[in-house]
From TrEMBL:
<feature type="repeat" description="Solcar">
    <location>
        <begin position="108"/>
        <end position="209"/>
    </location>
</feature>
<dbReference type="InterPro" id="IPR023395">
    <property type="entry name" value="MCP_dom_sf"/>
</dbReference>
<keyword id="KW-0812">Transmembrane</keyword>
<protein>
    <submittedName>
        <fullName>Mitochondrial carrier</fullName>
    </submittedName>
</protein>
<keyword id="KW-0813">Transport</keyword>
<dbReference type="InterPro" id="IPR018108">
    <property type="entry name" value="MCP_transmembrane"/>
</dbReference>
<dbReference type="Pfam" id="PF00153">
    <property type="entry name" value="Mito_carr"/>
</dbReference>
<comment type="similarity">
    <text>Belongs to the mitochondrial carrier (TC 2.A.29) family.</text>
</comment>
<dbReference type="GO" id="GO:0016020">
    <property type="term" value="C:membrane"/>
</dbReference>
<feature type="repeat" description="Solcar">
    <location>
        <begin position="8"/>
        <end position="96"/>
    </location>
</feature>
<keyword id="KW-0677">Repeat</keyword>
<keyword id="KW-0472">Membrane</keyword>
<keyword id="KW-1133">Transmembrane helix</keyword>
<dbReference type="InterPro" id="IPR050391">
    <property type="entry name" value="Mito_Metabolite_Transporter"/>
</dbReference>
<feature type="repeat" description="Solcar">
    <location>
        <begin position="218"/>
        <end position="303"/>
    </location>
</feature>
Amino acid sequence: MTNNRENSQYALKFAGAALSNMAASAATNPLDIVKVRQQLRTQLPGARSNAFWTVGVEMARTEGVLSLMKGFSASMLRELAYSGMRLGSYEYFKDVLYDQSRGALSREGIGLKVAAATIASAIGSAVANPTDLVKVRMQAYYPDGGPYKNMRHAFATIWKEGAAPTTASGPSSMLGGLRALYRGVNPTTVRGIVLSVSQICSYDQVKQVLKRRNLMQEGVGLHFVASMVAGLVCSITSNPVDVVKVRLMNDSEREFRGVSDCVRSIMTREGPLAFYKGFGMCWARLGLHTVLTFVVFERLRFLFGVGAL
């Protein structure tokens, strides 16, 4: 009976995590696409043409206002898989690791939180990589018009990029298609771990400290403050990895041989500050996304009859 109740609680947490992140992504999609466009540009750091307001206005003028919602369907699918797993299973792995350690890991300690967030985000990032890649491709700029009619067409087109040039389908064709959809999985997974550990753990830790010191009580105010701090922390830590991930995912011409080659190329051509291209929009988007996610997540938990994070 207890196991069934625990399993239902975990399922509700997964649903709440997926729904809250989908809502946050829907609200911040315009910021996300401008950030992606900034990160794909390769001009020298500080160029005014890469300012987020310039990119946004240019998109609205040349591609229409609706261009700011490109990749929306892929973004929703990504949040369902990725965020449902990384945030929804965070407490499950905390419980499992705590039990396995037999008390060696403190429930209040940062070590348990980091370990749980790392496992949850690594699995979520790896599983959801194809949806992330499709989202980036659909959000990128194409001078001759977008090559993808919709999300399904984008998946099929990318699959064909990696499929073996043969009329017969077989293991090699399937493997090539999977490789194409999993392009950039290494930086995606690293980014997912960095973002989730810094975001979820900082939120959890800030909440814990504020409540322990009787500075704030459980409620929307506490959720807002803790999520504001978490949004800044994860923006600072994840932006460099995000730049590399976006460049690799949009590299349909295979310019880069891998992560290290991409990092070296960016450093050589554009300098170290290039790894913080799009940071203003990243912080605006990720900060707002983090606040919306945790405030909605905590509210859904209350409605579902699940205790606060």
